[in-house]
Write a structure and sequence with these properties.
936 residues; alpha/beta; seven-stranded mixed beta sheet; 24 strands
């Protein structure tokens, strides 16, 4: 085996070990909050992972890795067979996590130092051995395991299947390499046989078949011989191949493997045939081996990252040119239609010429009685003289006009016009056929381009889980160290991101989680005193929107106090007190990312040095990423990271505003409306739109864009002054926004091109795209626009057309969920939180009443009927009899669908009645009406 092949195997081994080690760590962390069945399944998965690492390490000669994985595997055996997993102790998980860490260090050291035992490896091996000793001391020693079944008794079914089917191609390859070996290619044959040996010995190690490994060992000794000749290779090689086939047959029959002694056999005659010569063998061997099978390992190549990036960019250019072809195809079809209309007109003109000639000829026949037609015909004959069978021919002098047709050049010209029109019509038919073929070819090109784009993107993208799977472990360690209870929720783990972004994301995510843990999440007693659960939550979500990846790190902690930042800015001398008072909230939050700026007074292991958020912004800038903060005091903080995609091809809605074309990512468009001016309301100086039972802001698109353009020749039309106003309802993490545009153009697939450095990203502009006709169009960044205040949104000129409404509260309604089922409460909370409601949970009626009596501001209560301590009917009766709570809308959500229960709920004052399983869409549609009804 040459160095390249070995390095390739080691790279695969390293990647595989990383996956198995991460799997063990993830399962250990999940076991703490899992049930008994989930814990048992997790232990089995971890056992298999350790077993796989042991076998792979043994196959590649990493004996320290194999030994450490074997010891850890024994720990999982004890955990599986001799512990009560329902009473799993946190210390047991901690000790096993330390064992996983030790195995990870041993793996890295072994790969770096070629399995040479270093002091660090010895220390880690001893650490794993101590863990195993602790397990034995705590749970008792295991009984001595019997020898492998394949060496003394009938082989298991799985072992038989492996040796019957999977090993046959490998044996065939061994025999083929021996038979086809030659003096010129002896080195290549030795390399191939080396690969066969590594696969056989690795299989023996993984299946715990030491005797089979002993049968294969002579092959290793043979190819390592310094004086190896072709004759010796074929002589001893055939004997080894025969012994391996015999051992395989013994395993299939359930017999013990007999390790033979190597005795040279006569050299087989050379054969040009690719099949090996016949050799003495047991009757069960096939008469002639099958053709050589390819290696089980798929061939791979290494590609420079820059070349791969160039390939991705070329795919984007291909999509742009495909769009250009589609535009040309559409223009071609339009031209064909125009030609057909012209042909129809030409045919009508030719027919009119024929009719006019016939009319004039009939007038001449009627005689020279002064008829104007005769004069016209004479003029025509003067300009177009008779031809062939006209009057001038003496042969036709005896026939009048009715007995013999007469033709002039005028008649021939009309005929030629008609024939030319017919020829053009045939050409137009061919053009139409070509246009249809062009359209089919364009559709085929579109499908091929989509497949190509998908395949190319798969070369560069990995799951987001690769960037966050290490965070649960880090958070657990911080919880144990600082005595806090914090849960980590990972949403969108399967979201695909560019692999080159992983390194740039790891440090920012660690800093943001540490920041949320230290600055955001309060101590349990403080949270309980403020009405929050003792356990805090940090949520990390990844998703794609409008040609970029959006990652949100949110916590439900105390939030950020802007006034504290303002005081810190003045104290550190970054601004005067007068200047600090002028700073907006966004400008104050921006100071958090300044080097050396910290909101804490002291310095600890977690914070106080002012380097955390500075690292976040610095790392993100290297990959053209941005980060911004959104916080509510007492409710929590969100950090929103935006990263450009390597190549994004998305659907966009093309609109026209202020004489410019603008592309709006279609996944951010919630709804397209055409409203009348009378449907626009005014709250103070802000236009508002009543949409889906709530008021949302209405702005002109040109008021949102802040980049400079050349002034148009004509004045910019005002969308809100039109009789019918096109409106886009845009949705983002910042909320909802209605945007009025001048005109809707249509949907189109676009390639998102981020602005290249050194250009800075303008607010509200995500990037640009190139249309099929070559024009460059800007793409909106909807997240930027929705959260942006608009200074020029007054529409005083429309005051006669709009209606005044009271300003709406900026705080979203709060909903109380009362249900004894934890699962139902969590599902409902997730649904309502995504719909931008605030949620409070109660486990029964008593708990809900206590929360209301303690001052909970509730806009709606969703209540189950059957609950302990106080059921839903009793809770409903209690709040309707209490004046403070009597006006709170109540919706019953229960599995009781009978009319008796429904009637009882309505008599007690329920506003709505839902049954389980409920329709999420129906529930979300009803909630705004219930809340709006209570406000009215």
């Amino acid at each position: 085996m040459n160095d390249d092949d070995l390095n390739e195997l080691i790279d695969a081994f390293t990647a595989e070990c990383e996956e198995f080690l991460q799997l063990m760590e993830t399962n250990l962390l999940a076991m703490e909050a899992a049930g008994l069945k989930e814990r048992q399944a997790a232990v089995k998965e971890m056992f298999r992972a350790a077993h796989s690492i042991k076998g792979a390490g043994s196959m590649l000669g990493f004996q320290n890795v194999s030994a450490a994985a074997h010891t850890l595997e024994d720990c999982f055996v004890i955990l599986r067979d001799r512990t009560d997993l329902s009473a799993l102790e946190p210390t047991t998980v901690t000790v096993l996590l330390q064992g996983v860490d030790a195995l990870k260090k041993i793996t890295i050291e072994s790969v770096q130092h070629s399995d040479v035992t270093t002091p660090d490896q010895t220390e880690n091996l001893e650490a794993i051995a101590q863990i195993f000793a602790q397990f034995q001391a705590k749970y008792g020693k295991s009984e001595q395991l019997p020898p492998p079944a394949a060496s003394q008794s009938a082989a298991p079914e799985t072992l038989k299947l492996i040796f019957e089917h999977d090993l046959l191609p490998l044996f065939n390859r061994l025999e083929t390499e021996i038979s086809q070996a030659s003096e010129a290619d002896l080195a290549k044959s030795v390399t191939a046989l080396n690969q066969v040996y590594y696969q056989l010995s690795g299989l023996a190690g993984m299946l715990q078949l030491p005797d089979f490994g002993k049968v294969a060992q002579p092959l290793r000794d043979l190819i390592d011989s310094p004086d190896l000749t072709l004759q010796r290779l074929q002589s001893e090689g055939w004997t080894i191949a025969q012994n391996l086939q015999t051992a395989r047959q013994q395993i299939l029959e359930g017999k013990a493997i007999e390790v033979p002694k190597i005795s040279p056999s006569p050299t087989p005659p050379p054969s040009p045939s690719p099949s090996p010569p016949e050799i003495p063998a047991s009757p069960t061997l096939p008469a002639s081996p099958s053709p050589p099978a390819p290696s089980a390992q798929r061939p791979t190549i290494r590609v420079d990252l820059e070349r791969l990036t160039e390939l991705v960019n070329l795919v984007g250019e291909l999509v742009i040119n495909r769009t250009n072809l589609e535009l040309q195809e559409s223009e071609l079809r339009g031209e064909v239609k125009r030609i057909r209309r012209s042909i129809i007109d030409l045919n009508q003109f030719g027919g009119q010429l024929r009719e006019e000639y016939d009319r004039l000829s009939f007038a001449e026949w009627r005689g020279g009685n002064g008829n104007s037609g005769l004069g016209k015909l004479a003029a025509a004959e003067t300009e177009f003289p008779m031809i062939a069978n006209g009057k001038s021919s003496p042969v036709h002098a005896h026939f009048d006009i009715l007995e013999m047709d007469r033709y002039t050049e005028f008649h021939s010209t009309a005929t030629e016009v008609i024939e030319t029109a017919q020829a053009i019509s045939q050409s137009a038919t061919k053009l139409d056929t070509l246009a249809m073929k062009f359209e089919r070819s364009t559709d085929q090109l579109r499908r091929i381009t989509e497949q190509l784009r998908s395949r190319v993107m798969q070369l560069r993208v990995v799951s987001f889980s690769r960037a966050v799977d290490h965070l649960p472990r880090a958070l657990r360690e911080m919880c144990l160290t600082y005595d806090k209870e914090v849960n980590l929720l990972l949403v969108g783990r399967d979201t695909k991101i560019d692999e080159s972004l992983l390194d740039a994301l790891r440090d920012p995510l660690i800093h943001l989680v540490r920041n949320a843990f230290d600055h955001g999440i309060e101590m349990p007693e403080v949270r309980q005193a403020s009405g929050k659960p003792a356990s805090g939550q940090i949520e990390i979500e990844a998703r794609h929107q409008g040609g970029q990846t959006i990652i949100t790190v949110a916590d439900d902690g105390k939030g950020i106090d802007p006034e504290m930042i303002r005081r810190k800015v003045v104290t550190k001398g970054l601004a005067t007190e007068e200047q600090a008072q002028e700073f907006s909230i966004a400008e104050l939050y921006d100071f958090l990312f300044w080097p050396g700026f910290s909101t804490t007074e002291g310095v600890s292991d977690l914070s106080g040095r002012g380097v955390g958020l500075d690292v976040v912004r610095t790392n993100l800038r290297t990959v053209r990423g941005t980060v911004k903060v959104d916080s509510r005091l007492g409710k929590g903080t969100s950090f929103i990271i935006k990263l450009p995609l390597l190549l994004s091809i998305t659907d966009a809605l093309m609109v026209r505003t202020d004489h410019n074309k603008i592309a709006v990512p279609l996944d951010a468009v919630e709804e397209i409306l055409h409203i009348k001016a009378s449907e626009v309301h005014i709250a103070g100086n802000q236009p508002m739109l009543w949409w889906r039972e709530e008021f949302i802001r209405l702005v002109r698109m040109q008021d949102l864009l802040e980049y400079s353009v050349l002034p148009p020749d004509a004045p910019s039309p005002d969308p809100l002054a039109q009789d019918e106003i096109p409106v886009l309802v845009l949705a983002s993490t910042e909320g909802m926004l209605a945007v009025a545009v001048e005109r809707l153009i249509g949907q189109q697939e676009i390639v998102v091109k981020p602005l290249p450095p050194p250009l800075s990203k303008p607010r509200g502009i995500l990037g640009s795209t190139i249309l099929g006709d070559g024009r460059v169009v800007n793409i909106l960044d909807v997240d930027d626009l929705v959260g942006q205040p608009v200074a020029n949104s007054s529409i005083a000129e429309m005051s006669g057309k709009v209606q005044e409404i009271p300003p709406s509260s900026s705080q979203s309604p709060q909903i109380l969920i009362v249900d004894d089922s934890y699962t139902i409460r969590q599902l409902l909370s997730l649904t309502l939180t995504r719909a931008r409601y605030r949620v409070v949970q109660a486990k029964d009626g008593v708990d809900a009443l206590e929360k209301l009596q303690n001052g909970l501001d509730c806009s709606l209560a969703i209540v189950d009927i059957e609950m302990p301590r106080m059921d839903g009917f009793e809770f409903l009766r209690a709040i309707r009899l209490t004046e403070r709570f009597a006006k709170i809308p109540v919706a019953m959500l229960t599995s009781r669908s009978g009319e008796k229960h429904r009637q009882m709920a309505m008599e007690l004052g329920a506003n709505q009645y839902f049954t389980k399983p409920y329709s999420e869409a129906q529930l979300l549609q009803a909630i705004p009406k219930l809340i709006h009804h209570s406000i009215i």
